[in-house]
From TrEMBL:
Signal sequence interval, chain numbering: 1-23
Protein's name according to its UniProt entry: PQQ-dependent catabolism-associated CXXCW motif protein
Keywords associated with the record: Signal
Keyword Signal in record: yes
Length: 187
């Protein structure tokens, strides 16, 4: 009897230690946008938005019931490259059918970048503030969290965030397609 009681107490203590360690790993949802260290663990929530698993995201994608928005930044061409240097943009693989609005997930956006995001969201949603918008980039990337939060402030009512991004999508062996960013200027 004493052995069973000791084992039960030990199991309870181990469970409490594990729960405390897990709670320490949870990332609190900030009050505002994340403005630094964008490649870090992200919260499991986004107030006002739905957080999607890979399975949820695949279901929505297969049903074609949402606009998918990738906000991963695009590295700029380095300044002062030696003459004759060939610069090749790094290809971006996206969830098929997505639009890529690079650089729109930073915590602070310059006015032209914010206008670019607003125009891109208006096109993606066909001007419907109730259309489902799914935001993503990479796993442990605050850019998509920031962009989804920002879409809520613009009045979009059906916002979802896919925190595993193309990393989770690829792990599930789902298709990816090379894409180009949406044009920055109005046509």
């Amino acid at each position: 009897m004493l052995v069973r009681l000791t084992a039960a107490v030990l199991a309870g203590v181990l469970l409490l230690i594990a729960a405390a360690a897990w709670a320490d790993e949870l990332v609190a949802e900030p009050d505002s946008y994340r403005t630094e260290n964008y490649r870090a663990p992200v919260p499991t929530t986004l107030a006002g938005a739905r957080v999607l698993s890979t399975q949820d995201t695949e279901t929505i994608w297969r049903a074609r019931s949402a606009a998918f928005i990738d906000v991963l930044p695009r590295p700029p061409k380095p300044k002062n490259l030696p003459a004759g240097t060939v610069w090749r943009e790094q290809p971006r693989l996206d969830i098929p059918g997505s639009i890529w609005l690079p650089d729109t997930g930073y915590g602070v956006l310059a006015a032209p970048t914010e206008d670019y995001l607003k125009r891109g969201l208006a096109r993606a949603s066909d001007g419907d503030l109730g259309r489902l918008l799914v935001f993503y980039c990479l796993e442990d990337c605050w850019m998509s969290w920031n962009a989804a939060k920002r879409a809520l402030t613009y009045g979009y009512r059906n916002v979802a965030w896919y925190p595993d991004g193309t990393d989770g999508w690829a792990r599930a062996d789902l298709p990816l397609r090379q894409t180009q960013p949406e044009p920055r200027t109005e046509e």
